[in-house]
Amino acid sequence: MFSAQNRGILEIKEDLKDKQGLTKSLSFIDARSDKTIGAIDSKGKTEEIAFGQKDLNAFFNKKFQDDNKKFGNNDIVIMLEDLKLKSEPDGKYSKITYHIKISSFIKRNDRYYFVNRIDNSILRYFPTTYAPEMATEALAQITNLFIRESYAHPAMRTMIPEDKLADYENIIIKNSKLFSTPELPKGVYSSYKQLLDLQPEKGFFTVKNNKGKVVNIKNGQDLTVPMREIYGFIEDNKISVMTLVGLLDVERDDKGMYIITSRVEQTPQDNSSIMIGAMAYGFVGVGLAAILTSGLNKRKKGDTQLYKVYIDSLTGNLIFPWTENYVAI
After folding, report:
1. I need a labelling partner for 106 at 20 to 30 A (CA). Which of 88, 120, 132, 207 fits?
2. Which residue ranges make up each domain of the chain?
3. What pLDDT is attached to residue 118?
4. Low-confidence ranges of the chain (pLDDT < 70)
5. Cβ contacts of residue 293 below 8 Å, gap of 6+?
6. Please, is 167 exposed, middle or buried when counting C-beta atoms within 10 Å of its C-beta (0-12, 13-18, 19+)?
7. Is domain 2-169 annotated with CATH 3.40.50?
8. Which H helix or E strand runs over 143?
9. What are the angstrom distances between the C-alpha of 65 and each of 11, 24, 68, 140?
């Protein structure tokens, strides 16, 4: 979606085609309080990263219209809430950390319905010589896939008035059963959306060993359900979620829900792990999950320490910290 013709300039290139033809229009709200993204040192120069277009809404709207021939009924709104980048030298490589918060909505009659979001930091290593180009291209892939996955993604039922859009998260949380029910019902959940609504899979149950540890999930026909096909379960008012290192207990504090893990633990080491990674990323599709969790397989420095990794209250995605090893355990 972006290519850096001038190294640090984000030029939007790839198409925004809606293959299913469900979308009528695409709008873009730049809600960032600070428009500065960051800079990368390369070839003895500091390359400031910046968008190539000043009016992002006009650009995205026109590009969507130009890239599509079949249109539907949905007005999709993308809201960029934060975008930061920092670069640190690491031998011949540059360690690039992004923080991106971007959300999508369907707009109907001046009312908004939440679709999806990324609120995360993403860690990559690039050869320093080509770091500006490769960093912007990685950002391009993430943004492009997020927009395209938003076209067909189901929206939540909670209505958000236009003048309350900035407060969408609090509005949705107040209307969700997960955060308003003191005693959580026992059950197995295939998705975070089910967990948010406290609607477990009918007939599914956990199987424990003689030590009381959950070792299996079965359905109503008493058939074993692969662990990779569940998001998590609730027992004794306690939530457990499936991750790349198995089931982990969910804890809570004043900031929200979290698990104790590290970025390396939650990085797929091969293609067979990507599906589980997608489940750990809640609403995120497999393609986007692969991009969000890639980039550490060859260079796993500095992120093996365990710390609190919070769970996005709206999507179930794991939120890795902008500064590694914060709240270290």
Report:
1. 120
2. 2-169, 176-319
3. 94
4. 1-7, 269-304, 323-329
5. 266, 267, 268, 274, 277, 281
6. exposed
7. yes
8. helix 131-152
9. 18, 9, 6, 19
